[in-house]
Structure formats: structure tokens, C-alpha cells
Design goal:
Blueprint: H1 29-45, H2 54-68, H3 74-77, H4 102-120, H5 135-163, H6 168-180, H7 183-189, H8 196-213, H9 219-235, H10 244-256, H11 268-293, H12 312-317, H13 323-326, H14 328-338, H15 344-359, H16 378-391, H17 395-417, H18 428-446, H19 456-481, H20 486-509, H21 530-542, H22 546-559, H23 564-577, H24 581-593, H25 599-615, H26 620-633, H27 637-650, H28 655-668
């Protein structure tokens, strides 16, 4: 009897093996060699860069969980050089932490590891008490996060692409290029301790689990997949958009199997199990918001969102950290995803993320290398790039992709070399000059060893400890993602629930926690967004969009008036672009008042005050006095004295001029008392 033919497999639906021998579920020798090679490279070039704001806020979650078991961050914040505008008290009286807790929570085991190692082997941390803030603690967290979440993302992405039916050669090319020259590689080697590698890791873990669930919807795996996407959302809440993958997948599945006799994926109860796992994993964040902010859905520090005015072109192609212009491989990978209907379930969440981020006030993602918010989608870009290599197996395509990777690599070498700055806008004209100038300093910066000589035992000991542990995890990890491995599934699920349980306990302990630092310097409301308006205003100014730039600079100045830069640029725009001398004067005096004493601005304001002597003759005593102050700040004491005397000649009783004459004489004698301003 001839066996019945196998039922058709819908487009994009794979049973979980490419050649059908199950070898993709084992760790190949290449993966272990890659891991060892990556760890050796990181041993040489990895530097601890845990600094405010973002990384310090993430790390404060980890340290407070590991050492204090609460979310009272005053003692953590006291160990970092935060700017005064970055810290404020919530309505509940706690130091705010507006960042998601997921990154800190998954870093917590590395702090436990460093604490145990420093206790058992004191030579690793000479002359330091293990308290979660030592160099060794932060280095172990950085190394562990990079190896586990950075290296793990690359390996799982390659596994995911292979199980999707793509060839080994195409997958190796795509993974290698993305690891060498993309925004992800910057976060792999340069800015390692960040939320983006864990974000990408949990996204691809969820997609791998869903890949297995599609044709064999085990309740255990559905719950585990829910925990994975819940953790992805705990790291970055926008990752919950990938819950659309099962929804779109089911729609495509139904269309492709209307007349087939194969399983139709999870039942409605299966999707409920998936959602339950996601809610369980995300619950600690809700509890943190409720504890710190008094609301279950606080979502703090959310910038303005302009849903009908997306900055899509700028976000993708701008010189201001455009996703594709800074990391062209992301664009090529996105193109590969768009060329086939089979990738639609994963393409939809990616496109939605792009749209949402482009609607954000800070569409450039702050002090970012490229648009860092899209780094979490790296596994999808690897898949798309590999799919494109499969579709167009031409040498020229690999050459184009290699040039794209080289461009990004040159950019981040220039950033390491100090010729490119990420915190402040630079146009293409400056970037193109800065890249060749920064290549050699960047290479030198990668191989410098300032910490090597002083911390050789700590560095070697920590590297052996973390690398050995994670190598074991890598070797055993396939058992955790196979549906038949009950023990492995239960073990991973138990770990996830355990970490979440610690977060819940910490949140419950927080209301009774004793603040160990002075809170008098904390603000009572969030003024962090001033810098968003300021940076966008500067970008618009360099683009010649003066009216919009003035609007943003004014908004920044009103949010936080103690920063002089927005006042200064607003003054420039009013005078030089619109001819509004009086408006420029009022804005410029605020810049002087709050300390903007650059030679260029003092010269500009000196000329502005000279113009006002003609435009506003009734103001002459005040204007003469203020010009004297400006000239005194610039070191022109004789001219300043003339101006103060001219003011007194008009109004002998003008006390501000009298006081400033005395201050001017004191400055001639070497003292530095502040001038009096109006």
C-alpha cells in the first residue's frame, strides 16, 4: 500500500530542522570556537563604561536587587556622577528610575557571581570591599552581559535563520557581517553594558520558541515563550509588539491551510497561555511603577509622540543617527525581509517599531550610535540579510554588504578615536572629515591596556570565571529550547520565575526602606526632556530651519532655565536670522546670567548691546552697565570701566554700575567676585 502524501507545509512554516537530521539543535564546534574567540577579544578590548544616565540607571536596578533587595536607589545614585537635572523624586517620595527594570534584573546574577568570586578569591579585588560598585563588579557585569546576550544573540539568530530553511553559507555571511559592522557590533564591543543586547536576545529566544510551537503547540513551550516575550518587554516595553508575530502567523497559517489536514497551530487557549506567561514575566515592572510612582502603568519619562507627523526619512537616513545611513546592513536586512511574504509575521513588528520611534520627539534616539532603539531587531536583520544572500547568490551583493559593514565599522572606530561625538549633532560634512582622522586613534583606543597592568589577576580570574560559566550554559542551552527536554524547560522557567520573584520581593520591601543618602538636592519633577528639545533645536538650526529651531530652544530653556545653551542659541537666531534685537537681548542676558561666557558669545552680545544703545535710548544706563559686565567677563577691564562710568554719567544714582565698578577693581587685583546683573 502506497503511503499517503504528507500534508502541505504553509509558506514560512518549518518543523524546526533544515536538513532534517536535528543537527541544528546541537552546539556546533564553530559556535564554541566563536564564543572562545569573542571572549578572548573582549578580554583585550573590553572597558567598563557604566555611566549616567542610561547605563547607571540600569545598573542601579541590578545593584539594588543584588545587595539591598529593594528599589530605593539613593545609595546607588550617590556613587555615580549624575547631573542635577537627571535625578528627581517621585510623587511617593522615592528617587525616580524611569528606565525599565529588565536589564538590571538579568544583570543581577553577574553581580552575585562577582560577589562570590571576590569573597572566595580576595586577590581579585585588592584593597576593595565587594559592594557592587567596584571595578571588578562592573567589569564582570559588562563581560557577562556581552558574552551571554551579545554572543548569545548572534548564535541564536544563526540558529533561527538555519531553522527557517536558509543555507549555512548565507547564514554565516549574514551573522559575521552583522557582528563586524553594524549598530549591534558597536554595542557588542564598545558600549557593551546596555539594554540592547538583552533586548535582542529575548526577542530571538521568543521567535525560536514560536518556531517550534507553530506545528507542535505544547502548553509548556507556549508558557515559556510567553515568559521570553515578557522578559523582552521587561527590558524594553516596545518589544511587546512581537506578540503580533503569532497573530499574523495564525492569519497566514489559516489562509495557507484551509483545505489541509495539518494542525492549525495553537488553539485560543494556547494564546491565553502565551499571554499568561508574558504577564507573569512583566508583573515586577508593574509593581515597581506602583511602588515608586503610585500607578500600575506609570510609564515615566515618556517624550511627546506625534502620531501623524512621523520623521521616517530622518530616522532612517539622516546624518543625525539614521538607522540605515549609520548601519546600512540594517537597511539591507530590512529589504531582505520585505522580499518574501513568508517573513511578514516578523516584518510587521519591525515596521511598527520603526514607525513608533519615528513619531517620538527624540527620533534620533539621543546620544546614540545610529538609531540604537532598533538594535533589538538585529536577529530579524540577520535573517533578512541571509534570505537576500540566498535569493541573490552573487559575489557583488556580498561585496556591497561588506562595504556597508566597513562603513559602520569606520564610524564606530572614529567614535572610539574621539573624532565623532554622539551626544551632539554633527552634519555629514563634519562626519566625513572625522572618519579618516579617527581610524588610527580608534584602533589604538581598542587595544590600549590602562587597566591591564593594575588588574591582571582580577581580569584573568574574572574572565575565566565568567567565560567558563557561560561556555557551560552555551553547551547545555539547546536542551533548554527543545520541546522534548522537560527538565531543561522546567529549569529555565524556574530561573525566570525566580528572578521575577526577587523583583516582587524587592518592590514589596521598598516602602519601608531607609534612605541612605541625602535627598535634599533632588528635584521634585522630571526635567530630563530639556535636552531632547535642545538637541533637536540644534539639529534644526544646523539644517537652516530657524523658526522650528527657535521654538525648540525656547521650550528647552523654559523646562530647565539653568542651562545657558538654549538661551544662547535662541538669542543667536532672533538677532542674526530674524533681526529681533530686543528679543535677542532678553534671551542672551539669560545665557550670560547662567554662565555662557564663551569668547564668541561675549563678542556677539557686546555687539548686540551696542546696537541697543541706538535702538533703545531709554535703556542706556542699563545697557552700558551690562555691556561693561560682558567686557569685564571677557577680561577687557578698561573698556568695562568706561561703560560703567558712561552709565553713571547718565544716571549718577545707578547703584548696579557703582557696585560693578568696585567688583571690577577687585578683579583687577586678582579676586573673582561675580558681577551684578539686572
Amino acid at each position: 500500500m502506497t503511503p499517503a502524501p504528507a500534508p502541505p507545509t504553509p509558506p514560512g512554516w518549518n518543523t524546526g530542522s533544515t536538513p532534517g537530521n536535528g543537527t541544528e539543535n546541537r552546539v556546533p564546534v564553530q559556535a564554541l570556537l566563536f564564543f572562545v574567540g569573542l571572549s578572548l577579544v573582549l578580554l583585550m578590548i573590553l572597558r567598563v563604561r557604566i555611566a549616567p544616565p542610561d547605563l547607571a540607571f540600569y545598573y542601579s536596578f541590578a545593584r539594588s536587587l543584588a545587595y539591598d533587595l529593594d528599589f530605593s536607589f539613593a545609595n546607588e545614585y550617590a556613587r555615580f556622577p549624575f547631573a542635577f537635572h537627571e535625578l528627581y523624586l517621585t510623587s511617593q517620595g522615592f528617587p525616580a528610575n524611569d528606565w525599565p527594570m529588565g536589564t538590571g534584573m538579568v544583570w543581577m546574577p553577574f553581580l552575585w557571581l562577582s560577589r562570590l568570586a571576590a569573597t572566595v578569591f580576595p586577590f581579585l579585588v585588592p584593597d576593595q570591599t565587594p559592594d557592587g560598585h567596584t571595578w571588578f563588579d562592573q567589569w564582570v557585569v559588562t563581560l557577562g552581559s556581552t558574552l551571554l546576550f551579545g554572543g548569545g544573540t548572534l548564535w541564536l539568530s544563526a540558529l533561527y535563520a538555519r531553522r527557517a530553511g536558509l543555507s549555512r553559507r548565507a547564514v554565516l555571511w549574514a551573522t559575521g557581517l552583522m557582528a563586524a559592522g553594524s549598530s549591534f557590533s558597536y554595542h557588542l564591543f564598545v558600549n557593551s553594558a546596555d539594554s540592547h543586547p538583552p533586548s535582542a536576545f529575548f526577542i530571538v529566544l521568543f521567535l525560536l520558541l514560536w518556531q517550534t510551537i507553530r506545528l507542535n503547540p505544547s502548553p509548556r513551550l507556549l508558557f515559556l515563550a510567553g515568559c521570553a516575550i515578557g522578559l523582552a518587554g521587561l527590558v524594553r516595553p516596545h518589544n511587546f509588539l512581537f506578540l503580533l508575530t503569532p497573530v499574523v502567523d495564525r492569519w497566514i497559517f489559516r489562509k495557507a491551510t484551509e483545505n489541509a489536514t495539518i494542525p492549525r497551530g495553537p488553539s485560543p487557549s494556547g494564546y491565553f497561555i502565551l499571554a499568561a506567561g508574558a504577564c507573569l514575566a512583566f508583573f515586577p515592572q508593574l509593581l515597581v511603577w506602583k511602588t515608586l510612582y503610585g500607578s500600575w502603568l506609570a510609564i515615566p519619562r515618556s517624550e511627546d509622540v506625534f502620531w501623524t507627523h512621523p520623521e521616517l526619512y530622518n530616522m532612517l537616513f539622516s546624518d543625525f543617527h539614521g538607522m540605515i545611513s549609520w548601519s546600512p546592513l540594517f537597511g539591507i536586512g530590512l529589504l531582505g525581509l520585505g522580499l518574501s511574504r513568508r517573513w511578514l509575521p516578523i516584518l510587521v513588528p519591525v515596521l511598527l517599531q520603526i514607525y513608533i520611534y519615528s513619531c517620538n520627539l527624540a527620533w534620533w534616539s539621543g546620544g546614540s550610535f545610529g538609531n540604537r532603539r532598533m538594535v533589538g531587531c538585529t536577529p530579524l536583520f540577520i535573517l533578512g540579510l541571509a534570505a537576500l544572500f540566498e535569493r541573490i547568490p552573487k559575489t557583488w551583493l556580498k561585496a556591497v554588504a561588506s562595504l556597508a559593514a566597513g562603513w559602520t565599522l569606520a564610524l564606530w572606530l572614529a567614535e572610539v578615536g574621539g573624532t565623532i561625538q554622539l551626544d551632539h549633532y554633527q552634519p555629514w560634512t563634519e562626519i566625513l572629515r572625522a572618519v579618516p582622522q579617527g581610524l588610527l586613534p580608534g584602533l589604538a583606543g581598542l587595544v590600549r591596556f590602562p587597566e591591564w597592568g593594575a588588574h591582571t589577576p582580577a581580569r584573568l580570574g574574572g574572565w575565566m570565571l565568567v567565560t567558563g560559566l557561560l561556555a557551560a550554559v552555551l553547551w547545555l542551552s539547546p536542551r533548554f529550547i527543545q520541546k522534548t527536554r522537560i527538565a531543561g524547560t522546567a529549569g529555565l522557567l524556574g530561573l525566570l520565575i525566580g528572578l521575577n520573584g526577587i523583583g516582587v520581593v524587592a518592590a514589596l520591601r521598598t516602602p519601608g526602606a531607609v534612605q541612605s543618602a541625602d535627598l535634599s538636592s533632588y528635584r521634585t519633577w522630571d526635567r530630563f526632556t530639556w535636552i531632547v528639545y535642545y538637541e533637536r533645536g540644534y539639529y534644526l538650526l544646523r539644517q537652516g530651519r530657524y523658526e522650528a529651531a527657535l521654538k525648540d530652544m525656547t521650550a528647552a530653556a523654559l523646562i530647565e532655565p539653568r542651562f545657558p545653551e538654549p538661551w544662547m542659541y535662541a538669542s543667536y537666531i532672533c538677532s542674526l536670522e530674524f533681526g529681533w534685537k530686543t528679543h535677542s537681548y532678553h534671551l542672551g542676558r539669560m545665557a550670560i546670567r547662567y554662565g555662557k561666557h564663551t569668547r564668541e558669545f561675549l563678542a556677539f552680545f557686546d555687539q548686540l548691546l551696542t546696537d541697543l544703545l541706538v535702538l533703545q535710548p531709554a535703556w542706556r544706563p542699563m545697557v552700558y552697565t551690562q555691556r561693561g559686565v560682558v567686557r569685564g567677563l571677557g577680561g577687557n577691564f578698561d573698556q568695562a570701566q568706561h561703560d560703567f562710568n558712561d552709565a553713571l554719567a547718565i544716571d549718577p544714582g545707578y547703584t548696579v554700575a557703582v557696585k560693578n565698578l568696585a567688583i571690577l577693581e577687585a578683579r583687577r587685583q586678582g579676586d573673582n567676585p561675580p558681577f551684578h546683573w539686572e
